[in-house]
Each structure stands twice: as C-alpha cells, then as structure tokens.
C-alpha cells in the first residue's frame, strides 16, 4: 500500500546548521502519526518540506505516491495544514475567514458548513475571530486545513497554548479523525504525553535525525518487560535480588526488575516471590510493569547520549 507520506534521505541545511539530517520516515495511511522531538529538533522544517514550502538540500518527499518536488501542485492538493501562524482576520467572522480560503480552492458554502460541523464550530461561526479563544482559533485552523477534504493533515503542535480542557478536547478530536473522515494525521509535538495519548504511530526526531519510528503498540510490546514489586523490606529484597544477578531499581511504584532475555514474566514473578518469602521478606504485590512512550524515549535518548559520549 502507498504510504500517506514518505521521505527518503530528507536533508535541509541553513548555512552551517544541519536542521534535518538524512531523514527517512513513513506515515501509513489512516495513521495518527506523532512526530516527537525537542524544540529545535527539526520538526517544523520537515513539515515545511513535506508541504513543498521549503526546498530540501537533499532527499525527497512523496505524498500518497506523488513526488513533492516534481508534482508539487498535485501533491499539495492532498494535504491540509495547520502551522503555527494562523493568519486569520480578526474583524471577519469564522465563516468569512473560511470563505476566503474556500474561494481560492474553488469550494462552495456547503463545504464551509461541513468543516465547521466537523470541528463543532457552527454555533460560533457568525462571531468575529477577534473575540475567539485560542482553542476556537485552533479549531478554526483545523477547519481551514480540512477544506476540500484533503486525505492528509499536517498539524504543527496543534495543542500549543490550549488550556487543559482544550487540550483534552483536541486530543479526542484528533484521535477520532481517521475514523470520521478517513484522513491520515501527522501531528508534531514536543510533549511525550501528548503523542502517547493521541497517536497510533510515532517518529522520534533528535537533532535532525529520525532515531525511532514505528507503531506505538508494537514499540511498547517490543520493550524488554519489567516486573514491579512492593515488598515489606525493600533493602533486604534488593540484596537478595542482587545476589541472584538481577538489577532491581527503586521506582515510585516499588522496585522494578528487568527480565532476562526470553524469560517468562509469570515464571519470573513466581521465582522472585518464592525467593523473597522464603527469606522472610513479605511480597505485597508483583506483576509486569506497563511500559510507556517515556520508557521508549528515554532508551533512545540514552542511546543517543552514549553515542555522543563515545564520539
Ligand atoms: N529559516 C531558518 N534559518 C536558519 N535556521 C533555521 C531556520 N529554520 C529553522 N532553523 C534551525 O533549524 C533547526 C530546526 O528548527 P525547527 O523549527 O525545524 O525545529 P522544531 O523541531 O520544529 O522546533 P520547534 O518546536 O521549536 O519549532 C533549529 O536549530 C532552527 O534554529
């Protein structure tokens, strides 16, 4: 199946600064792809190249199989975008602002009403944008991105500046988009939690490079599992576990113990429980620890910093 977005060796220099470095990413159709990275990691620069707004120094981008450099207009028609600067006219209503873009795209009033409905803004569409909250502007930005029902949506930090209620609403909304509209969503964020709660796929960019990519559920499942246990005597439990060649780590939820390669979590839990109980340390609870995107991210970040140290 053709990917919604595919980049190959994408590179962009600004003078001596390598903002995007040989980045090859694949965003499958109908995914909510979380593009995660610290500020300055290269997310916006990548999105601009996908949109054809910025020319790559090297490499290429395909949107639904269309080469952005060679078939720029056809590729652009596949994509709706929400970038940081909204550029709405405050003295016009939400509906009038959308009408400006709709006219450029050759779309009629019915399409404006459709996108207003999708972002649940019909009630406020007659009001001037100057009186809108940031959340309403973000929704209007999304509505504009969806005009003409482009199959791919690029959203740069879509929850930036929203209050907690607005963030929760936006996340719910983005998660439901592929099912509601059939669209593929690429959203950038510097917030782990944001991606974890919204995305089906993730790409982690660090210093211009894609350091990890995949389906979120699979990435989590592939992480080496850990057990977490609560005991009546952690000091004793730690020394007993160390003597068994394990490396317990004190965490908020209790002691965590990494499983050995290929070890069955239930078997390991039984062995550890027996060991501790027979040695007089009570075991209150033991079980596998659910891994989070943060664990994945830390592992990649740790990997990167050890590379930097080695260099
Ligand atoms: N037009 C430009 N001229 C020079 N340097 C630039 C330009 N645009 C981006 N950069 C640099 O490229 C690097 C990547 O920037 P980019 O905006 O893509 O990062 P980002 O991950 O989107 O970060 P943020 O979330 O802060 O926007 C940064 O070091 C930035 O300073």
UniProtKB/TrEMBL annotation:
Entry-linked SUPFAM superfamilies: P-loop containing nucleoside triphosphate hydrolases
Residue ranges constituting the ABC transporter domain according to the UniProt record: 5-232
SMART domains, A to Z: AAA
InterPro entries registered for this protein in UniProt: AAA+_ATPase (IPR003593), ABC_transporter-like_ATP-bd (IPR003439), ABC_transporter-like_CS (IPR017871), P-loop_NTPase (IPR027417)
Keyword vocabulary terms for this entry: ATP-binding, Nucleotide-binding, Transport
PANTHER family: ABC TRANSPORTER, ATP-BINDING PROTEIN (PTHR43335)
Entry similarity comment: Belongs to the ABC transporter superfamily.
Full protein name: ABC transporter related protein
Native source species: Caulobacter segnis (strain ATCC 21756 / DSM 7131 / JCM 7823 / NBRC 15250 / LMG 17158 / TK0059)
């Amino acid at each position: 199946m053709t990917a919604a977005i595919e980049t190959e060796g994408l590179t962009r220099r600004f003078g001596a600064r390598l903002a995007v470095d040989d980045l090859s990413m694949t965003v499958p159709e109908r995914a909510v792809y979380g593009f995660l990275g610290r500020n300055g990691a290269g997310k916006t620069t990548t999105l601009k190249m996908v949109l054809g707004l910025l020319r790559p120094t090297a490499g290429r981008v395909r949107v639904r199989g269309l080469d952005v450099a060679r078939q720029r207009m056809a590729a652009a028609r596949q994509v709706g975008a929400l970038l940081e600067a909204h550029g709405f006219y405050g003295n016009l209503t939400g509906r009038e602002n959308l009408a400006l873009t709709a006219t450029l795209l050759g779309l009629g009033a019915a399409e404006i009403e459709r996108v207003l409905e999708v972002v649940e803004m019909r009630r406020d569409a007659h009001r001037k944008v100057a009186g809108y909250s940031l959340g309403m502007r973000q929704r209007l930005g999304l509505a504009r991105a969806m005009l003409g029902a482009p199959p791919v949506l690029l959203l740069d930090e879509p929850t930036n500046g929203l209050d907690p209620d607005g963030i929760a609403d936006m996340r719910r909304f983005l998660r439901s988009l592929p099912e509601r509209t059939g669209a593929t969503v690429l959203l950038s964020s510097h917030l782990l939690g944001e991606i974890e709660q919204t995305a089906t796929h993730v790409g982690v960019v660090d210093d211009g490079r894609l350091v990890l990519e995949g389906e979120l559920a699979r990435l989590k499942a592939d992480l080496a599992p850990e057990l977490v246990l609560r005991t009546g005597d952690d000091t004793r439990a730690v020394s007993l576990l160390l003597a068994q060649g394990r490396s317990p780590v004190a965490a908020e939820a209790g002691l965590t113990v990494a499983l050995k390669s290929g070890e069955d979590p239930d078997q390991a839990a039984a062995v550890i429980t027996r060991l501790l109980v027979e040695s007089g340390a009570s075991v209150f609870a033991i079980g596998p620890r659910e891994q989070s995107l943060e664990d994945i991210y830390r592992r990649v970040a740790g990997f990167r910093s050890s590379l930097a140290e080695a260099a």
